[in-house]
Amino acid sequence: AALSRKNDVDIKGGWKTGDPVPYAALAKTFALIEATTKRLEKTALLTSFLYLVIQRSADGDSNSLLQTVYLCINRLSPDYVGVELGIGESLLIKAIGESTGRSIATIKADLKKEGDLGLVAMNSKNSQKTLFKPKPLTLSFVFSNLREIALTSGHSSQAKKVSIITKLLAACQGHEAKYIVRSLEGKLRIGNAERSVVVALAHAAVLAEKDKAGKKWSKDKLTSRLEEGANIIKSVYSELPSYDEVIPALLKHGVEGLRDHCKLTPGVPLKPMLAKPTKAIGEVLDRFENKRFTSEYKYDGERAQVHMLPDGTVGVFSRNSEDMSKKYPDLVEQLPNCIKESTKSFVLDAEAVAIDRTTGKLMPFQELSRRKRKDVKVEDIQVRVCLFGFDLLYLNGEPLLKKSLQERRELLRKHFQTVPGEFDFAKSSDSESVDDIQTFLEQSVKDGCEGLMVKMLETDASFYEPSRRSINWLKLKKDYLAGVGDSLDLVVVGGYYGKGKRTNVYGAFLLACYDSDSEEFQTICKIGTGFSEEALQSHYDVLKPLELSKVRGDIKIGGAKPDVWFEPQIVWEVLTADLSLSPVYTACARAERGISLRFPRFVRIRDDKGADDATAPEQIAEMYESQALAQSKGKKKGGGD
Ligand code: ATP
Known about the structure:
Distance between the termini: 54 Å
Oligomer: single chain
Number of strands: 21
Bound molecules: adenosine-5'-triphosphate
Strand content: 15-25%
């Protein structure tokens, strides 16, 4: 219903069953999605388009739908394969110049005015006089060219990339250049998060199946089938986050058949389960009242999801599903010693922690971050790591997500073994007494950990929930007890030049959180104290190449006025004394006032997180509310403020 008659004809008119999908149809759909702010309408528009792609795909062709979905979420492969775009502004400007004959200076001037290189590319193309119409672009041609650009590396790769982009742009018509350039930049900015794409995909598949079978459903039945379909695809995808697997299975076995054909598979990393912050042991006890729970050390290292395939291949994946096997060849090598003979294949959830092999002492995350990220040779390794296993998600052909933590933990302990300095089970205590938990918390900090993770142990509340920040896992950090509850992971979006001795570097920075619903960065604070000269220099070296000539359109600025803007890419972990309302910043803004951090303090760079993984506004709002609640309780008790 969201499609107007004219647009409907525009999109539908473009191709026949079995023909390649025209890229123009996708670009048109993107333009319609971008033009509305209504969430339901956005989903309906994408559903209509995906429905057409399914209906018009030849039998056995799952590639058309697969490539369409990838372009809608602006990715080119599953996360763990890591084929990524994110082409720099200057390269794109060069290509736009070459394909339209406009000078770099005019393109830059336009960019300053518009703030969106996609729009500049489209306008440049559309104002160009051409003698004949270029051959229409197909979606699959665009997809394979984007992949080629992403995969080009090494000698003269920049020139090769510019040449492919130039050719692509030369063939663009209508809205195409805008979305191709934005895809290349790595941000579509149409306000359609992956969650909505998954819902649209499910709806399209349900509707296509219904129409193919010639079924007539009542409105209620249709609504419930659509909802059910979305739940199935979401749950299947959370176990097997690879469209390469899920989409062909969806077309072959239908929505209902997906669960039987797509299950957690070693080799395909799942998004890890995350925890909610708590400020006091009392809060933990309130939450887990009358339920069995366990407290585990919260190790201060890097999350490592370790997979072993039946053929013995071992893979180590990060929190973001990046393949870290090249960063941790020592873990890969150590692993066979840690498993018992009965263990043939598994997926283990663990923390890799830097350790001093002579004293057996754990070392802080900073030590671990000194390791190279790529192409590490075991013989060159200075900082050794010990793996602390805390969960088992798959064992010998069977997914364990729907077993209780108690059962998973038993299986873990039965099928793995401790190797001093190489592998151990996360230290835990199942006591439910406040005193014991307090003692265990203090012990964990003495042993070099950040605090505790408190987890539901039994019933379905203890199932493993991939990608969820779940209330059934609570984190209790020593730091929280004094501050607002948790550190925040924020994106550096702007810089302020330093004063005095510091004029050659940035002396302060503008930080933002990320709202994945609106795909928007919301400013939250300026941070500028507590940095050493060396730290400022090294931040400058990292951030200088990310300077932009104009603030990006997806940054909700508010009243902040930094001297320079950055490509939102770098994530910092930050602590704060408390949260307050401010008319300057836009985080969680309601009625002109956003939430801001007071006395923010830099903790570390989070290079295991992308800008999209930054703390979400809802989490910040939750922190703000729980702080307000704690303050009002304090006042009631006569604690003043
Ligand atoms: P943070 O910002 O607190 O470092 P995060 O945002 O990456 O963490 P959280 O859910 O907040 O994720 O905290 C859980 C993290 O703590 C896990 O990702 C994991 O790396 C680490 N961790 C250490 N010990 C454990 C444990 N015993 N159980 C689960 N996670 C653990």
